[in-house]
Input
Amino acid sequence: MINTTCMIAGITFKNPVVMASGTFGFGQEYSKLYDINQLGGISGKGLTLYPKDGNDGIRVYETPSGMMNSVGLENPGVEAFLRDECPRWEKLDLVRIANLGGNTIEDYVEGARLIDEDNRLRERRGAKAVDMIELNISCPNVKAGGLAYGIKTEVAREVVREIRRSTTLPLMVKLSPNAEDLVGMAAMCEMEGADAVSLVNTFSAMKIDIYQRRSVFDNLYAGLSGPAIKPIALRMVHQVSKAVSIPVMGMGGIRGAEDIVEYVMAGATAVQVGTHNFVDLRAGKQLVDELRTFMEQEKIGSLDEIRGIV
Output
């Protein structure tokens, strides 16, 4: 018998394959291509308290072994998510993670409060829609000159602490690889009551159009993801997993079962898949099937047998 399940904050994932925020929408479009209930979970499109139009100009650019994005967190806002998407999320048989960002602590707190309140009302009717909040601290802090919350540990501490006070839902904090002290940031999240951490978010990167003599992106820099970052992301997941006792969800360049197994061996409880969704629209199903086949071939009965062995 092959057991692909894993657990985070008391929530059981049927397998460790979770679709990363910003790469899968809220799941509706992909559900037309395959049964997304085969997945372990979904981290929905990044939400902010109020709707955002996102960035102007080019938003996505292919790179060797990866891609860059400068979407700018375009999203419908928390209230529209609760009204329009959560009725569909109620019917899904997988772990549903709401990814929440903000430019002020007040916006973060109010967004978390609304999600928590709506979820408790739905739960009383027997059909909750959100299982966990993933806190995106890579957003710029407008009160600190635009520096992302996720760069300095003490700046991030305040938002993690306030969100922990604002919701009864399990809380996972998504860490930026651009943090000054990534391991210290993860330890702080655990200290402030986070139930898990996910890493890594995209790397700050650049592409120049040498004929136009300008950056490809209107915002100058963009986020790099895909297989190109995997060796660095894997190292970061390993370091963080050894430093904290809460579960770690790893991400960065996953495109096959072998990649998932590497992250698990590095200490990850589960993984998120992002860029590969743009390469293969049925990537989720492929990865779930491949993982089970790999475990059967290697006679791995449970992921617990190999988790953190490196």
About this structure: DSSP finds eight helices and 16 strands in the chain. The mean pLDDT is 96.
